[in-house]
Amino acid sequence: MKGNQKSKGRLSKRDLNSYQKRLMEDGNLIEKLSREELDGVASDLTNPDDLYQRVRILAKSFDPRYIPVFEKLATYADDTMVAGEALRALIDFHGRHEYLPLLMKYIEGVNWDPYDDLKLHSIGIAEFLLKEHKDQELIALVIKQFEESDNSVVRDAAHEALMTAAGIDRSDVSTTIAARGMTEDDLRLDVIARLKKGQLPN
User: Using only C-alpha atoms, what is the Rg of the chain?
Assistant: First the structure.
């Protein structure tokens, strides 16, 4: 039995904090956690105080055994960060694109997300999707958030996602502006106009 792991696979708070620290320091955490350790993380998903921590560790494992956990928690209205991380695991890490309607619902906004945390998380997931999957309905919804949201952070996130959909990496914006002889505002308007017309990069 490793470290401070308790019987029946349950983890102490000290173990969980250690895993979280390793997760922050090493993106390849799964290579350092055994199935037993991961099962220990999943053994108690009832404590709201560490639920996000546990879901994030399980998500980073890329282990399909925990898909039912993410499916249950993707609509967890008691904690928007938990719901967002569970949805990210389903879509980003396990390719479950049948959850796209739920993603779009969260981008549109739900009444249990008063501070737009889940909306921001969902726009981030959308940006990841739009790198490869140019879903016109999703693009239109992100454009709507950029044009209509009264939250500047949401607008900034939507802008980043739209640039990604247009095939422009955030690190290349300055180069693109210089090459096209336009301002950043001009580029933004040009990108949105092309996306609205369905003019997507190959």
Answer: 19
Tokens representing residue 81 in the block:
């960060």
First to last CA, the chain: 51
The dihedral region occupied by 168, where left means phi > 0, alpha psi between -120 and 50, and beta the remainder, is beta
* pLDDT tens, position by position, 99-139: 999 999 999 999 999 999 999 999 999 999 998 888 999 99
* Cα–Cα distances in angstroms (integers) from residue 30 to residues 3, 22, 34, 59, 124, in the given order: 17, 10, 8, 10, 23
> In the block, which residue shows the tokens 């799964």?
30
d(CA 49, CA 57): 15
User: pLDDT for 140-155, tens place per residue?
Assistant: 999 999 999 999 999 9
d(CA 51, CA 164): 31
3 Ramachandran zone, left/alpha/beta (phi>0; psi -120 to 50): left
